[in-house]
Design the sequence.
């Protein structure tokens, strides 16, 4: 068996990135967690973009996050909404940002074995890949608020 490409940290970061994309797919298309994960596995897992090969996602972490978000979606939506409620006069975040926040909220809730600062840092890295500074700051604020509510 060959050694996986990339460090464990890089594969975990990739898992979080792909999890956000899978949850986004679920929001937009109504696909189940399994359908979205199979779509990644069957069509994008080994994909090259502009001749750049990406570090593969840690599949165990990826599956835990996506399935966990699907299974606990109602609770996670309520938690994220509660953390967002302090933003007076602002509209609901768009689907990709909601996907990111749901994944981060799930990990804060379910992965007590992972330091909260690491979870927040990882999702900030993902946010920076998709969004401008305002959305990245919002991600930090929401995940920090959830950390205080869930882990204090």
Sequence:
């Amino acid at each position: 068996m060959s050694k996986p490409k990339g460090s464990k940290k890089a594969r975990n970061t990739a898992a979080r990135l792909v999890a956000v994309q899978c949850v986004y797919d679920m929001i937009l298309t109504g696909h189940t967690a399994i359908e979205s994960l199979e779509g990644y596995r069957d069509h994008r897992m080994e994909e090259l973009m502009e001749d750049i090969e990406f570090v593969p996602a840690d599949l165990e972490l990826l599956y835990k996050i996506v399935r966990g978000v699907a299974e606990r979606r109602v609770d996670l939506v309520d938690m994220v909404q509660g953390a967002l409620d302090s933003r007076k006069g602002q509209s609901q975040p768009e689907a990709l940002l909601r996907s990111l926040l749901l994944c981060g909220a799930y990990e804060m809730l379910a992965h007590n074995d992972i330091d909260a600062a690491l979870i927040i840092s990882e999702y900030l890295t993902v946010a920076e890949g998709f969004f401008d500074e305002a959305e990245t700051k919002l991600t930090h604020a929401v995940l920090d608020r959830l950390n205080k509510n869930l882990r204090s």
Summary: The first helix runs from residue 8 to 29. Residues 8-151 form a domain with the N-utilizing Substance Protein B Homolog; Chain A fold (CATH 1.10.940.10). The radius of gyration is 15 Å. The mean pLDDT is 88.
